[in-house]
Design a protein that fits this description.
By secondary structure, this protein is an alpha/beta fold. It has one domain: Rossmann fold (3-Layer(aba) Sandwich). It is 29% helix and 15% strand. It contains eight helices and nine strands. The strands form two sheets. A seven-stranded mixed beta sheet has the order 3-2-1-4-5-9-8. Strands 6-7 form a two-stranded parallel ribbon. Helix 1 runs parallel beside helix 8.
């Protein structure tokens, strides 16, 4: 039976200051999409509210704007998938084998407190499915609790965009919180690569997380390995 992946993207287009745009980091979707497509998985794109998905302007520049991202951006049919996404409110988790939370700083705003995202993530996890994220996507796991009230990430290895990377990206004064610190406060066993911005992904059972935009392919490959067992 064909495996089904639920790709979650943002609806937010700017930081607290509207003068600073943000959105989906495109390659974090396209790299994973390519891996999942090669494995023949059926994929769906959804967002917390449904509707359009803003793109992070910096993700449309080299080096993130690579062949895979450019091919998507130049394809009207693919871009249409981001023009009118379904809402998480309408998702039946039973239809999916894995959830993949994309990033971009925008998700720091609409992922953490999205009850539909928490519900879908919890049900996929508790049914034996795979929960995965890349970069800031792990912000969607900050407040996700299981049926017993515990945090999904508590006591589990997790990675995601590091505070050092926020500083180097010169957005540490723009972001609403320190995601790495918040993740540790939930009891997660946070890990990161020795060097910033290199590909790094970790798995702990059915939880797979990647550190930064360059980790999307590695993260998706780990998810595929689990799905194909």
């Amino acid at each position: 039976m064909t495996k089904r992946i639920l790709n979650v993207v943002t609806n937010v287009g700017h930081y607290d200051d509207p003068g600073h745009p943000t959105g989906l980091w495109l390659s974090e979707l396209t790299h994973a999409w390519h891996v999942f497509a090669e494995h023949g998985y059926e994929q769906t794109i959804v967002s917390p509210k449904g509707g359009s998905v803003p793109l992070e302007p910096r993700s449309l520049k080299f080096p993130s704007y690579d062949r895979t991202a450019k091919a998507w951006h130049d394809d009207p049919a693919r871009m249409a998938l981001l023009g009118d996404t379904a809402s998480l409110d309408d998702v039946d988790p039973a239809g999916f084998d894995a959830i993949y939370l994309t990033g971009g700083h925008a998700v720091m705003y609409d992922f953490p407190d999205s009850e539909p995202l928490q519900r879908v993530t919890r049900e996929i996890w508790e049914s034996g499915g795979i929960v995965s994220s890349v970069c800031h996507g792990y912000c969607g796991l900050l407040n996700t609790t299981l049926s017993d009230g515990s945090h999904l990430v508590a006591g589990r290895k997790v990675t995601g965009f590091a505070w050092q990377e926020e500083v180097l990206a010169r957005v540490d004064k723009l972001v609403p919180y320190n995601a790495e610190e918040e993740m540790r406060s939930r009891g997660a066993l946070y890990e990161k690569a020795r060097l910033p911005f290199v590909s790094y992904a970790v798995d702990d059972g059915n939880l797979v997380t990647g550190q930064n935009p360059g980790s999307a392919k590695e993260t998706a490959t780990k998810v595929a390995t689990l799905l194909d067992r």
